[in-house]
């Protein structure tokens, strides 16, 4: 059976959820062989094996942390050369997309980014993509070389499937360009204790109607009652009320949770582009004419400062 | 020695308008109103600021696209870029990102460069991978997804606000950078700038000028194929309730019914 390379996104050995989703999709195409790089790489093997990875190729070197992107491309290319896979899958993070891009150019392969589904086809993997602010769905495939495909979070269910997960050391030699861009300093983002925005099952977002940074506590309280991530519209981010890392929309994150709650967000195209593939959409807005209401499964026309706290209390009461 | 900056820009269908696909599944660029991609305005702006800080700099704005793509070049020139290069060739129709990165790499090399500045992504294809591909093809460092950028003594420095961490990066020139929409508002062209742009040189190049064969680009030369596109069915509006004091409770009841609580 053909092998499929899966690039592992992990933090010191803790595998992030989108990688486990990738393993589900990889199994549709062949036997997953995972590639884990950097500090803690070997510690990923147990989790990856539980989710179908037959082998886990690992490498660690200071270059992975000290220089941007290219050392990881060198390593992934080494894995590609040794495995001769049927496809290479990566998560659609900013960094992994750049790794995918450079690998694709090097091996002369077509690249598909931001797939939301993946199936085996007669002419190789068929990717589904949401395009033009999710107004269209496209079916694409790679027509030259070994397909390199990045997949968005929440595109598949995490499905445990026991496999060997045998750790093998990957031999990597870094090329001349590996040390081109130095990472002078790295400051990890402060953790909020909330789920990662793109990975969350529920997202609660606030927009212009929140009317001030201090009022975002209302949005956060609802999010915490539901175990949700917090998002913000571009208007709220541009006003400085919430960090850009939480922006949902065309130039921020694109999310596809089970439930999306938009509070005080009118629903401009810029925002819709980032959330309209959510399974269930709920909105609270004072303006009954707001375009967000065209998308919703359930909408409340009202003041979010009345509705959201009442909802939060009710959620807490129902959860006991 | 003059700092040679090349800004890569894309002419895209207006994201606020009705965007469609042509019968061959390429982006329909005839029917829609086109413009300079909003995200590339940030690249032009940062190039202008870098040039302002340099003793001597020249900004060339570069695009690959049909005749109308000149509009994007004119906008960038009116913002303050010095000259433009337009790669235009009928055989380019349907070129994918791999082919575009090849064409840009050849055009950048032909133009001569110390620094290439790109936006973080186009607003139509929205892949965000072109700067990395371009750096790979040029064999120079990539310093990408920057919210802050500066050039000093032959070194480019920048801040990358990633998902997991904020990183400060640096690389020696020549290099490829990309900047995000957090890098700073782009300036509006002044009337003087608009008038001046009309006199600025726009060089036209075709594939033969860049020693690229037609079969390396276009739909047939693409490394990816789009087999089908379909409009997403419009979401049907669900229940809309006016809050009469019980809105939060009604919403909670709905969420419970949908098993979210």
From TrEMBL, chain A:
Arranged from A to Z, the UniProt key words for this protein are:
Electron transport, FAD, Flavoprotein, Transport
Q: Does the keyword Manganese apply?
A: no
What are the GO BP annotations of this UniProt entry?
Answer: fatty acid beta-oxidation using acyl-CoA dehydrogenase
- Cofactor entry: FAD
Q: Where is the Electron transfer flavoprotein alpha/beta-subunit N-terminal domain?
A: 4-183
Give the co-factor note: Binds 1 FAD per dimer.
Please provide, alphabetically and separated by semicolons, the GO molecular function terms listed in this UniProt record: electron transfer activity; flavin adenine dinucleotide binding
Q: Kindly give the Pfam families that the UniProt entry links to this protein.
A: ETF, ETF_alpha
* Binding of FAD, residues: 208, 233-234, 247-251, 264-271, 285
Q: Which domain of life is it from?
A: Bacteria
Recorded family membership: Belongs to the ETF alpha-subunit/FixB family.
Q: How does it assemble?
A: Heterodimer of an alpha and a beta subunit.
Describe its function: The electron transfer flavoprotein serves as a specific electron acceptor for other dehydrogenases. It transfers the electrons to the main respiratory chain via ETF-ubiquinone oxidoreductase (ETF dehydrogenase).
The molecule here is called: Electron transfer flavoprotein subunit alpha/FixB family protein
Question: Which organism encodes this protein?
Answer: Streptomyces montanisoli
Automatic annotation (TrEMBL), chain B:
- Cofactors: FAD
Give the quaternary structure: Heterodimer of an alpha and a beta subunit.
Specify the protein name. Answer: Electron transfer flavoprotein subunit beta
- What region holds the Electron transfer flavoprotein alpha/beta-subunit N-terminal domain? 24-214
What domain of life is recorded for the organism?
Answer: Bacteria
Q: Which Pfam families match?
A: ETF (PF01012)
* Organism of derivation: Streptomyces montanisoli
Q: What is the lineage of its organism?
A: Bacteria, Bacillati, Actinomycetota, Actinomycetes, Kitasatosporales
Describe its function: The electron transfer flavoprotein serves as a specific electron acceptor for other dehydrogenases. It transfers the electrons to the main respiratory chain via ETF-ubiquinone oxidoreductase (ETF dehydrogenase).
Q: Which GO terms describe its cellular component?
A: cytosol
What GO molecular functions are on record for this protein? electron transfer activity
Give the similarity note: Belongs to the ETF beta-subunit/FixA family.
What's in the keyword line of the UniProt record? Electron transport, Transport
